[in-house]
Design brief:
7-stranded antiparallel sheet, globular, alpha+beta
Length: 182
């Protein structure tokens, strides 16, 4: 079932529109959004790689202070690599960058938009592994399987092209617009 909450991997529903913040990020940082042939790979999740996920999630969560884009830039949506301050998608960009530096394939590190239980939009990093899809989140120190998070999954980057986005079939999904990500 496409919306099976127990599925190891997210089920995708096809092409969808990328978040405007991601489009603007790609215009300003094309080197981070260009597709690489053969990048649609999942990572073998060894003990070493699992520890790496935990370390990088913790490092970024501890080094960046959460601040909204409105507070920081006086604009509702700015995706960028954070300095000392940033919001959820900034954490995701930095975690993705560090994992790419460690040799993770780009197609296994996907920016993902979810809806929090309070209805707010939020960004997390989906890490595709041979053991399923795992989530790195600035609101959580632990790395969890996607089905073990409280979120409704809406869309994520395509594993084949960082500029393309795909919808996610998630039975927990709620109807209605997503408020800005935090």
């Amino acid at each position: 079932d496409a919306g099976d909450a127990n599925a190891a991997f997210m089920s995708l529903t096809g092409k969808t529109r990328p978040p405007i913040g991601h489009v603007q990020f790609c215009k300003s940082n094309p080197e981070h959004c260009n597709g690489v042939a053969g990048q649609d790979r999942i990572m073998e999740l060894t003990n070493y790689r699992w520890d790496e996920l935990i370390r990088i999630n913790h490092l970024v969560n501890q080094s960046v202070i959460p601040v909204s884009d409105m507070e920081l830039y006086a604009r509702p949506e700015v995706w960028t690599f954070p300095g000392r301050y940033g919001d959820c998608e900034d954490y995701v960009l930095l975690k993705r960058h560090y994992l790419l530096e460690k040799g993770w394939p780009a197609g296994s590190l996907l920016i993902t938009v979810v809806r929090r239980p309070d209805g707010e939009g939020h960004a997390v990093l989906t890490v595709r592994t041979d053991r399923g899809d795992f989530i790195l989140d600035n609101l959580e120190q632990l790395v969890h399987h996607w089905t073990e998070t409280p979120y409704a999954y809406l869309k994520r980057q395509s594993s084949k092209s960082p500029r393309r986005w795909e919808g996610i079939a998630d039975a927990r999904g709620a109807v209605g617009p997503v408020a800005s990500t935090n």
